[in-house]
Write a structure and sequence with these properties.
Layout: H1 6-11, H2 21-28, H3 30-40, E1 45-48, E2 58-62, H4 69-86, H5 91-112, E3 117-118, E4 125-126, H6 134-155, E5 156-158, H7 161-183, H8 190-214, E6 215-217
Antiparallel strand pairs: 1-2, 3-4, 5-6
Residues 31-32, 67, 105, 109 line the site of zinc ion.
Length: 219
């Protein structure tokens, strides 16, 4: 799962309107941000195997911390707590929403990944393997983003021209990234993969912040 993670981020303001979109864009990839750090540190491991699944060349054979069920729950709880501590309004609801957005990452990974998600220490690995079916996996990613966009447009309104077009710019950038991901060369190394992933997450978080500046909650 790549751009599909942003579906829950776009839909989440329908539940709690005080949480900025940039925080939700960061939250839904927080588990992968920590993953990128642990890959660079050599603590978690990935092999790049072209054709490993139809959709992704990543053999994510060792990620017992960020992508295990207890690890994902703990990271999501930590991020929700951090949000609750720094937020000025609706701290509890906002913290829960951010934690939920972060954990949605693991649930969506569970649908698409090969069995590489550890359920508990020493336990079995889970993953329903939808990445083996390219049309279905791609359809799910696109559908999640479009559904999220519909929610986002319903609960926010533009302050001006940029705010009117920006949600569509965001989604166009996501679709372009998905096309590059599918058609481009696989990354040359695990380090390159980790660095580019984290850079993309940060840029998308910045683009979401522009949506926050140019749109406001609908009353
Ligand atoms: Zn992930």
């Amino acid at each position: 799962m790549f751009i599909g993670h942003y579906g829950p981020a776009l839909a989440a303001p329908a539940l709690v309107r005080t949480v900025p979109l940039w925080a939700l864009f960061f939250a839904v990839q927080f588990i992968d941000v920590v993953w990128g750090v642990l890959i660079l540190a050599g603590i978690e491991q990935v092999r790049i195997v072209p054709g490993f699944t139809a959709m992704s060349p990543l053999d994510l054979h060792h990620m017992p911390y960020t992508h295990s069920l207890p690890g994902a729950l703990a990271l999501s709880a930590l991020l929700g707590l951090a949000y609750g501590l720094i937020a000025r309004k609706a701290r509890l609801a906002g913290g829960l929403l951010v934690a939920g957005a972060s954990f949605s990452h693991w649930l969506l990974d569970l649908i698409v990944h090969a069995p590489d998600l550890l359920l508990w220490p020493g336990g079995p690995m889970a993953g329903f393997g939808l990445w083996d079916n390219l049309p279905l996996a791609l359809g799910l990613e696109v559908a999640l983003v479009l559904a999220g966009l519909i929610f986002y447009l319903r609960v926010t309104q533009a302050k001006g021209l940029i705010g009117r077009i920006w949600p569509f710019v965001l989604v166009a950038v996501l679709f372009a990234l998905e096309a590059i991901h599918l058609l481009g060369e696989p990354p040359a190394s695990a380090e390159e993969l980790a660095m580019t992933s984290m850079a993309v997450f940060l840029v998308l978080t910045g683009l979401a912040a522009v949506a926050d500046l140019t749109r406001k909650p609908r009353r």
